[in-house]
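Dear colleagues,

For the upcoming journal club I promised to circulate an example of a predicted protein-ligand complex. I picked one with manganese (II) ion because it came up in last month's discussion. The inputs are reproduced below in full, followed by the predicted structure.
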Amino acid sequence: MSVLAGFVAALADGDLELVDLTAPLSADTPVLRLPDQFGQAHRFSLSEISRYDERGPAWYWNNIATSEHTGTHLDAPVHWVTGRTGGDVAEIPVRRLVRPAAVLDLSAEAAADPDFLLQTGHVQGWIDRHGPLPAGGWLLYRTGWDARSGDEEQFLNGGRTPGIAPECARWLAEQTPILGVGVETVGTDAGAAHGFDPPFPCHHELLGRGRYGLTQLRNLAHLPPTGSVLIVAPLPIVNGSGSPCRVLALVPR
Ligand code: MN
């Protein structure tokens, strides 16, 4: 059997499961809010062009409005000032869009402390149990925050959301071979990360070293610590700093 015939058969008979890690996109999708002096991201919205009416008797379609960073989305290096000479979202080599994932579950810690920060020691403990982080793969950081994603107030939690400690972000960017970090929260950094040194360390360190961010993932609880593969599909927005994307996980059963 060819590799692809085996793949299709494994999907058909359930040896491989597809898990959707993507949040639905609607006007209710939670969006990051910045302090008033800064520009703000658009919510997602539909604007009807026609719906089987005089504007188009046989067809229904909409214009959409969104920011690049609304809903489940990818951060490209050029999103951050430290990555300003890095790539935009259209320039991501497609081979990087299908990559293995490591899943670190800190949901109990984040449930006990909404300001919980991932430390290097947590990642090193995971490596001791499961082996090295996948070279060129994703580190998926589970906090259980996806359970809040249906309610923007709970999801944003007044700016108190878990994230990554500055020294851990620096260590991940400088000392590990990961492609990027994926999270369940509205951004890859903690809600309080504007006050860290450097501010927004995950963006600062990872995007500054040509890595990527994935946010507002869900269903990470259905993934094993190792052995899954992500298919990440951002739109190739020319000069885009990021894009809403569909994120699927292939999981062996
Ligand atoms: Mn973003």
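Two points we might discuss: The pocket of manganese (II) ion is lined by residues 69, 73, 75, 187, 215, 242 (CB under 6 Å). Residues 15-40+67-252 form a domain with the Glucose Oxidase; domain 1 fold (CATH 3.50.30.50).

See you all on Thursday,
B. R.
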